[in-house]
UniProtKB/TrEMBL annotation:
It is a multi-pass membrane protein. GO terms for cellular component: mitochondrial inner membrane. Pfam families: Mito_carr. The lineage of its organism: Eukaryota, Viridiplantae, Streptophyta, Embryophyta, Tracheophyta. The keyword Repeat applies. GO terms for molecular function: dicarboxylic acid transmembrane transporter activity. GO terms for biological process: mitochondrial transport. Keywords: Membrane, Mitochondrion, Repeat, Stress response, Transmembrane, Transmembrane helix, Transport. This is Mitochondrial uncoupling protein 5-like. Solcar repeats lie at residues 4-107, 118-209, 218-308. It is found in: Mitochondrion inner membrane. Coiled coil: none annotated. The keyword Repeat applies.
Length: 314
């Protein structure tokens, strides 16, 4: 069960992460809109030439508009900026959390009870634990992914222009030190704990409820329904932490000057003060539209991989 759970979760996570990467990029760009404390916050590059920076900072665009503008100004390939970092992140973070979650579920199951028959509280506890450990392992790839996704929104002179996740991590270590790889790690861990607990626990609980009440049989319809519901729950629970995490990871303070935010609380307070409390739900629509498909692809792929491995007696 140990190795098998990691392999199954890793395969499903990479497939889901790569297929929904453009939606994740749009979400990151939207979360950075209005970030006045750092620099004029363009959600995309080369837009509004000649417009005052203050006016641009207040421009708000929806996910479709942001996606269209990214394609217009940076090209279609820009929607996959940072996809190598996404793959590494899924290999490190999601493989770890998915595998540990299955191990903890098995260990905390009552002796003699059916596999998967675990109280919701224990499922949530397993998700919190697995998510926190997975996030700590995958944080370097997460920082690289956020920076690569956000790079196109900066003026040309300020872009980092990472060529790959390896280049991003290497340059961060050389220019900012090894500790820069764990920038915003406390927030990453918090978000991952929330996402994993809400996503995995709710999927299992909803799936079990649907099957036990004979609403649907254990098949594709049940998997899609349970996974999309789990994605929505995860999006609602994690969006505020995700906004703060994105802004802290994207900080690029100039030498000799203090960082825009001293920590998560400072970032949250400045964001609310300047942009209002609903700013913590910036990018919520693309978060839902990304979490929904991501979670559906994740669990549908996971169930199919499990079936294949079962047929192969792996």
């Amino acid at each position: 069960m140990g190795v098998k759970g990691f392999v199954e979760g890793g395969i499903a996570s990479v497939v889901a992460g790569c297929s929904t990467h453009p939606l994740d990029l749009i979400k990151v760009r939207m979360q950075l809109q209005g970030e006045q404390n750092v620099r004029p916050a363009f959600a995309f590059a080369n837009v509004g030439a000649g417009c005052p920076a203050a006016e641009l900072a207040h421009q708000k665009m929806g996910p479709i508009s942001v996606g269209i503008r990214v394609v217009q100004t940076e090209g279609v390939s820009a929607l996959f900026s940072g996809v190598s970092a996404t793959m590494l992140r899924q290999v490190l973070y999601s493989t770890t959390r998915m595998g540990l979650y299955e191990i903890l579920k098995e260990k905390w199951r009552e002796p003699g009870s059916k596999p998967g028959n675990l109280p919701l509280v224990k499922k949530i506890a397993a998700g919190l634990t697995a998510g926190g450990i997975g996030a700590a392992v995958g944080n370097p790839a997460d920082v690289a992914m956020v920076r690569m996704q956000a790079d196109g929104r900066l003026p040309v002179a300020q872009r980092r222009n990472y060529t790959s996740v390896a280049d991003a991590i290497g340059r961060m270590v050389r220019q900012e030190g090894v500790t820069s790889l764990w920038t915003g790690s406390s927030l990453t861990v918090q978000r991952a704990m929330i996402v994993t607990a809400s996503q995995l626990a709710s999927y299992d609980q909803i799936k079990e409820t649907i099957i036990s009440r004979d609403i649907m049989k254990d098949g594709l319809g049940t998997h899609v329904t349970a996974s999309f519901s789990a994605g929505f729950v995860a999006a609602v629970a994690s969006n505020p932490v995700d906004v703060i995490k994105t802004r802290i990871m994207n900080m690029n303070p100039k030498p000799g000057q203090p960082a825009p935010y001293s920590g998560a609380l400072d970032c949250a307070m400045k964001t609310i003060k300047v942009e209002g409390p609903m700013a913590l739900y910036k990018g919520f629509i693309p978060t839902v539209t990304r979490q929904g498909p991501f979670t559906v692809v994740l669990f549908v792929t996971l169930e199919q991989v499990r079936k294949i491995f079962k047929d192969l007696n792996f």
